[in-house]
Write a structure and sequence with these properties.
About 40% of the residues lie in helices and about 25% in strands. It contains 9 helices and 9 strands. The strands form 2 sheets. The protein has a 5-stranded mixed β-sheet with strand order 6-5-7-8-9, sandwiched between helices. Strands 2-3-1-4 form a 4-stranded antiparallel β-sheet. The protein is elongated, with a radius of gyration of 23 Å. The N and C termini lie far apart (about 60 Å).
Length: about 270
Amino acid sequence: HDSCELFFLPGVPSEMKAMFEQSVIPALQELHPPAAARQQRTFKLFGLPEPKADAMIPYAKLPQGVEVAFALEYPLVVVKLRAEGDEATQKLDQAESLLLHELGEYTMARDGETPESTIGKLLINNNLSLSLAESCTGGLIASLLTSQPGASAFLERGAVTYADSAKMDWLQVPRPILQQHGAVSEQCARAMAIGLRHATGTDLALAVTGIAGPDGGTDEKPVGTVYLALASPEGVHVKGYLFNGDRHKVQRMSAFMALEWLRRFALRKQD
C-alpha cells in the first residue's frame, strides 16, 4: 500500500513468532538487504549507575566506528558495543579489551550469559558447595541460581527462614539475639550464616535478612535495610545495606548483591 509492505500475523504468540521468524524476517531481508554485517557485544554491570559507567568508558580510545549504547535490566546496567563492516570483529576485540580494563571488576556477565550462569560456573570450577538461608528475598536467590541447568553441582540446599521460629529451629539462631537485636540485624545475619554452615557442612553458607517493605520499617531500621552474611572456611563476613525502591526492587537488589558476593569470593579463590 503506497509502496509499503504490510504483514498480517495471527495473535497467538507461538504462531506469530514462528511466522515472523520463518517468513517476515526473510522477506524484509530480501526487500532491504543489509549494507554490512552488524555485530554486538554486551556487558552486564552491577554496582555502577549508568552515568558513572558512562564516565569510565574510554571513548577517545575506542576504534573508529564502534558505537556504545546502554540499557537497564534492574539492577544491572547493560553496555552494548556495536560495529559493522568487514573489520567489525577486530574493532570489537579492541573495544572489549579497553572496556574490560576499566569496567571488568563490575562485569557480572557478557553476551548471552546471565549473572547466575556465570556465578554457577565459577562455583563449579572452584569446587565450592553452597547453601542458602533467605528471609526478605523469599527464595529469589535460589530461584535465580536454579534457573540455570547444572545447579545441583554446587547448590546443596536453600530455605526460606522467614519467621523467627524458623531462624531458631533450623538455623539455631539464639533467642537472645532476636530479642535484643531483632531479626533484621548484623548479629542475626551472622548467626544465620554460622548456623546454616554448621547444619549443612557446605563450603559457603549465605544468609540474608531485611525489610523489603512497604511496611515494617522504623526510624532505626527503615524499609530497605538488609543484612547479608557469608560463612566460609575463612570466617564470616557480614554487611548491612540500605536499598532504595519498592518491595520488588529491594528484593532484587538484595539477591543480586548476594550473587555479587559469591562471584567475588569465587574469583578470589580462582586467583
